[in-house]
Amino acid sequence: MEEFRVRGYLAARTKTIAVKAGVNEVTLFRHFGNKENLFREVLHQHLKRIAGRIAPELPGPDAPVRERLLALARHLVLVLEENRSTITIILRESSAVPAVHASLGPLPQGILAIIAAALVREQKDGYLRPLDPAAAAHAFVAPFFTALVFLEPLGVPLPYQDREEMVLTLVDLFLAGMQTEKPPAAN
């Protein structure tokens, strides 16, 4: 991953990758066939690890919906921060390598599906309005992604003192549009 991160897909050298992996370059090509397949597999494995970490252990059903969504948002922020360079590679390289772009589409969709599933549970319990869960997942993720992967790396000042204020503000904005007017009595 390091060679692709530093040099980009087109400039990455398979010989360097093979040396770092402790294998012969011929072995690398026998296993993957070409650099595109190697790149796709490296990113696929990394994104599977990201997806596996995106579903945190949320507070129990007795906790207020806000606390459960705050836990989900804090975890999302952590995952986005830890994987910012990989996400940047995906964004940069997928436009240069259409086959890689096509093969990676299901992975972000999988992450959104995990978040949508958490939101569906809240909807079924009556805490969130019964809107399209996929659209709700996009609405939940987009402000965090925009702030951490797009604006902050470009040096655009964010209107928050720190990460916790960002999480609190964005979750409250999400709830302002999604929370039911009369949450169940336990909330």
Description of the structure:
The chain is mainly α. It is built from 10 helices and no strands. The chain has one domain (39-178): Orthogonal Bundle (Tetracycline Repressor, domain 2), CATH 1.10.357. Helices cover 73% and strands 0% of the residues. Helix 5 crosses helix 10 (163-178). It is elongated, with a radius of gyration of 20 Å. The relative contact order is 0.12.
Blueprint (SSEs and pairs):
Elements: H1 2-11, H2 14-21, H3 25-32, H4 35-53, H5 65-82, H6 84-96, H7 98-104, H8 106-124, H9 133-151, H10 163-178
Helix pairs in contact: 1-6, 4-7, 4-8, 5-9, 5-10, 6-7, 8-9, 9-10
Per CATH, the superfamily is Tetracycline Repressor, domain 2
Q: What's the CATH topology name?
A: Tetracycline Repressor, domain 2
Estimate the strand proportion: under 5%
Roughly what percent helix? Answer: over 70%
Low-confidence stretches: none
Tally of separate domains: 1
Largest sheet: none
Mean pLDDT: 85
Report the CATH C-level class. Mainly Alpha
